[in-house]
Amino acid sequence: MDAKQGRALFNKYVNNECSPEERELLEKYLDSFQDDSLELSDLNFDEEIKPKMWSKIMSETTKEKQPVVRVLSFSSVMKYAAVIAGIAIGVSIWANLHNTSSQSLVIGDDKVVLRTSEGTSNEIVIGGISQINDDEGGVIASQEGDVIVYKPKSDVKQLVFNEIEVPRGKTFKVVLSDGTSVHLNSGTIFKFPVNFIQGEERKVFLTGEAYFEVAKDPEHPFLVNTSGMDVRVLGTHFNVSSYEGSVAHAVLIEGSVAVQEKDGGNIVGTEKVIVPGQKASLVSGKFEVQEVDVEDYVGWMRNVLIFNDEPFSEIVKKIERRYNVEIKNEYKELAPVRFNGKFDDETVIDLLETFRASAGFDYHISDNKVIINQNKRNSL
Known about the structure:
The protein is an alpha+beta fold. The chain has two domains: 1-106 and 305-380, Phage tail protein beta-alpha-beta fold (3-Layer(bab) Sandwich), CATH 3.55.50.30; 112-296, Jelly Rolls (Sandwich). 20% of the residues lie in helices and 34% in strands. It has helices at residues 3-14, 20-31, 49-61, 74-85, 295-298, 312-323, 348-359, and strands at 112-115, 121-124, 129-133, 139-144, 147-150, 161-166, 172-175, 181-184, 188-193, 202-213, 222-225, 229-233, 237-242, 249-254, 257-263, 266-267, 272-274, 278-283, 286-291, 305-311, 327-329, 338-343, 361-366, 369-374. The strands form three sheets. It has a 19-stranded mixed sheet that branches. Strands 21-24-23 form a three-stranded mixed sheet, with helices on one face. A two-stranded antiparallel sheet has the order 20-22. It is globular, with a radius of gyration of 24 Å. The two termini are 31 Å apart. The model is unreliable at 33-41 and 61-102 (pLDDT under 50).
């Protein structure tokens, strides 16, 4: 199919005249543009049809003032939106588009903070080397790079807690005294015993997100306590997310875990056991379990930002945590629209430019805050 035929199909698409066969043909035609040597701008659409096409796309991905029922996958939306923008782009939003050098953000360099049971706070310099001491001067842990390792102690009679706060824009790792590794995502607070007590369960407290590699110890179950649910294990690898204002969930990579709902700090209901490859989400007081690609939930440990059928409202929160920026979305109709995407080492401006090209919004930076507005040419 040549460019002329492609334009004809797009016209039918905009006017709701495409048969299922023609729509499939259009999809295959757009797939051919994954080759960087091909330019979608060769289709030469005029300015009149572009807003109509965007309106059509948005009508298929949103319903008026209702949660999104997505008909097109975002890969499809990206293909159509790429034509509207007149740019060469594939079926995912990996593209590193042009920088907006005239707009800049000052990214704060907040420090990781370690708080002790004595109430002292210590800033951790990522990349540095240091020792952490107790109130008597004894060494309880050592830090090297972006990892703190706590030393085991056998004759512990009373729990003593430390707390680590990881700011937005940073990640950190803690190795507990039992050998359990805990990878902490940005915007996370993690409270844990300096040493565990023989004969008692190993309980830690999480606000935010962390990936756990729990040291096996059948006699001492490991319990992750969050505001909305508890996760109980013996020895396994799993990810727990419990950010304020977002749906709490646990994703199991290896082993077996049981999740249990909490209400006001009290355990309610019965435990729900999940197996590797499953995600348990606490939605409206009930656990929903589904099969997932676990890579979508642990990519952050490699500094990869992944969106999998997520609403823009949640994506904004991820961007804020990842880049330590503040975003205000004044394009309310965009909030429930769902996207797929993957970003590695792109800057926040790269990411915003990619979304702007695909989602049809404008943004500006004011008082070091990103303000998102509707592009007046693309009304929903």
